[in-house]
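Example for tutorial group B:
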C-alpha cells in the first residue's frame, strides 16, 4: 500500500497536526511509501511530489514539530475539478497515481476540498476503479463545515482572535475621549469566528467586546448607529467585532468596493472592507474618533495554538487514514457529547455531507444578546483550552521545514 497526502484551500494553525496524524497512522499501518503532493491536486497533475523519510520522521520527532507548525507545509492550491466525470483531466490524474502505485489518497481541506474528494470518487466509479481509496480530512477556521460540531483550525483562530481583542481593549481603554474601534474578523459567509469574540467577555464584570455584528443577523445601518451611540455614551471607548461577510439590511456598507479579488479556483470573493466602511459611517454620523482593524490572514496561521485543537486535528488525521483503509470517500468528523465536561466522539461521513455546503450560526441563538453570548461561550470556551509551547531561535519563532523529513520524488 502506498499513501499520498495533500493539503488544499486556506491554511490553518493546525493543518500540519492533521498531516502528522495521517503520517503516524500510515506508519503504524505499514504503508510501503508515504508521499506528499506539493500544492494540492495541482502537484499530482504536475508530478511535484515528495516522499516522507520514515527514519527522519521518527528520529527527529517530526510529528511533535508539525503540531507546532502553522500553515500548510505541503503548500496549497485552489483548483476546481471539472464537473464532468468523463473529462480527460481525471484520466491524466489517475494515470499519475498509478505510476507511483498509489492505493490511498488523503486530501486535507475544507468545503471546496471535499468537493475535490467527491468528484474524484465519482470519476473513479465512472471508470470502475476499485483499487484506489480517496478520502478527506476536514479543516477551516470558518467553522462552516456541515456534519460536525466544529472544524479543526477554528479553535486556534478563535484563541488568537480573543487574545488579540483583549490586547486591543487594553489599548483603547486608556483614553478619555470617546472612540469606536471596529475589528473585522474572517469567516466568509459564516459568523462563527466573529461570534467567538464574546468568549473574552466571560467572567468579566464589564464586556471587553461591546457590540457584535454577524452576517446571520443583519440590521439596518440606522439601528447600528443607535447601538453604537448608546454604547459610547455608556462606556466611552467602544470595541466592535464584525464578521467580514456582514452586510446591513440596506447594504449601505457596500458603497465602496469590498471585493478585493476572487480566488483563482472556486471564484469565491475575497471579502474585505466592511469594518473600514462602518468606521467611516460612525465617524461621519457620530463625530467621534474611529479606527478599523482588519485581522486578515493573521487569524489563520498565528503561532498561538489551542492544545485542544492540535490534538483533535492530529486524531482526525489518523482517523482519515483508518476510515479509508478499506473504504473510500470517508471524512472523519468531530461530534460533541458534552461541553461540561468537554467530551467528543468521532465518526465518518461521505464527502457529499460537507462539499459545497455551509453551516451557519443557528437562528434561535439570536433571541437576544445574552442568549447569543451564553450559547457561544458554552460552545467556544472548551475549544480554547491548553497552550502549545513554541520553539525560538535568536528570539524568533523556529518552525520545522519540509526538507527536514522528506526527499524529492524523481521519476
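The residue assignment follows.
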Amino acid at each position: 500500500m502506498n499513501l499520498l497526502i495533500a493539503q488544499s484551500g486556506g491554511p490553518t494553525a493546525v493543518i500540519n497536526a492533521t498531516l502528522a496524524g495521517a503520517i503516524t497512522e500510515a506508519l503504524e499501518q505499514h504503508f510501503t511509501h508515504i508521499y506528499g503532493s506539493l500544492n494540492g491536486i495541482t502537484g499530482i497533475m504536475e508530478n511535484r511530489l515528495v516522499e516522507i523519510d520514515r527514519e527522519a520522521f521518527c528520529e527527529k520527532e517530526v510529528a511533535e514539530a508539525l503540531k507546532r507548525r502553522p500553515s500548510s507545509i505541503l503548500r496549497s492550491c485552489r483548483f476546481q475539478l471539472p464537473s464532468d466525470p468523463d473529462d480527460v483531466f481525471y484520466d491524466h490524474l489517475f494515470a499519475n497515481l498509478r505510476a507511483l502505485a498509489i492505493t490511498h489518497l488523503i486530501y486535507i481541506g475544507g468545503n471546496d476540498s471535499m468537493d475535490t474528494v467527491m468528484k474524484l470518487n465519482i470519476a473513479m466509479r465512472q471508470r470502475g476503479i476499485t483499487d484506489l481509496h480517496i478520502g478527506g480530512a476536514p479543516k477551516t477556521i470558518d467553522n462552516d463545515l456541515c456534519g460536525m460540531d466544529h472544524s479543526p483550525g477554528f479553535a486556534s483562530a478563535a484563541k488568537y482572535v480573543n487574545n488579540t481583542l483583549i490586547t486591543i481593549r487594553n489599548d483603547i481603554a486608556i483614553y478619555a475621549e470617546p472612540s469606536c474601534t471596529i475589528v473585522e474578523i474572517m469567516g466568509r459567509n459564516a459568523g462563527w469566528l466573529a461570534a467567538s469574540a464574546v468568549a473574552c467577555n466571560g467572567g468579566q464584570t464589564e464586556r471587553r467586546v461591546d457590540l457584535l455584528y454577524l452576517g446571520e443577523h443583519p440590521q439596518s445601518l440606522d439601528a447600528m448607529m443607535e447601538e453604537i451611540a448608546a454604547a459610547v455614551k455608556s462606556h466611552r471607548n467602544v470595541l466592535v467585532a464584525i464578521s467580514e461577510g456582514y452586510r446591513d439590511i440596506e447594504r449601505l456598507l457596500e458603497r465602496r468596493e469590498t471585493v478585493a479579488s476572487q480566488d483563482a479556483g472556486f471564484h469565491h470573493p475575497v471579502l474585505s472592507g466592511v469594518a473600514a466602511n462602518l468606521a467611516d459611517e460612525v465617524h461621519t454620523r457620530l463625530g467621534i474618533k474611529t479606527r478599523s482593524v482588519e485581522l486578515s490572514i493573521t487569524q489563520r496561521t498565528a503561532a498561538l495554538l489551542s492544545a485542544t485543537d492540535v490534538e483533535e486535528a492530529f486524531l482526525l488525521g489518523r482517523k482519515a487514514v483508518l476510515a479509508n483503509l478499506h473504504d473510500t470517500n470517508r471524512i472523519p468528523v468531530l461530534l460533541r457529547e458534552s461541553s461540561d465536561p468537554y467530551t467528543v466522539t468521532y465518526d465518518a461521513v461521505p464527502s457529499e455531507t460537507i462539499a459545497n455546503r455551509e453551516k451557519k450560526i443557528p437562528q434561535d441563538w439570536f433571541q437576544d444578546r445574552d442568549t447569543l453570548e451564553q450559547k457561544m461561550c458554552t460552545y467556544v470556551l472548551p475549544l480554547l483550552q491548553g497552550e502549545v509551547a513554541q520553539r525560538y531561535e535568536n528570539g524568533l519563532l523556529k518552525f520545522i521545514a519540509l526538507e527536514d523529513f522528506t526527499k524529492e520524488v524523481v521519476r
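The mean pLDDT is 94. Compare this with the pattern of hydrophobic and polar residues in the output above.
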